[in-house]
Amino acid sequence: MKNIYTIILLLSFSSLSFGQLLPGTLDVSGFPNIVESINDLVMEAGEDANTVGFESNIDASLISFTLDPTVAPILGIPLTSSALNCSLNIFRYSVYMHTQNAPQNVEIQAKTTMNSGVRFPVNILYDNLLVRPLGPRDLTPENGGGYITIPNNGNAAIKVFEFVGCRQDIPIQFKVKASALAISGASNFDIFYTVIGSIL
Length: 200
What we know:
Radius of gyration: 21 Å
Number of strands: 13
Distance between the termini: 30 Å
Order of helices and strands: HEEEEEHEEEEEEEE
Strand content: 35-45%
């Protein structure tokens, strides 16, 4: 009988925790600064520089996603902290990326590594459950952790990685592959991150 009560308790916890998506905040710090020197260019006729590519540091950008604290609607009094919301509400998050105003004939790529970043909070009750509905709180990169070309179009944003539960300090590494047809000079462009939450 005790086992039945335990299963009912776990199912009740799961249905409460996975009932609705809560609002969260994505924090992005850092941006890659990549410079291609004249010595790095392809010197042979008929070859193109886009076969080489120039990489940023592995932690050129760090992103974090946490659920917002819950606040009483009328009084504005904090009810639960971000850490508590992340502990009690476990969702699967997919991160999509795209650029805007990227220069023509330049390919921008991004990647991260398996289980990069830090779980937030580090240890919670969900980690000790025998049955975890969404699996372990891990990060899984797309393309096996290899570089993914980021489209210069918001309608074609591409999934770069996904993770379960809140996560902080996820390093993003960038690679720029400029064609010989690219116009020289300094270029500034925007990188957009879109986080889509799911209870499945």
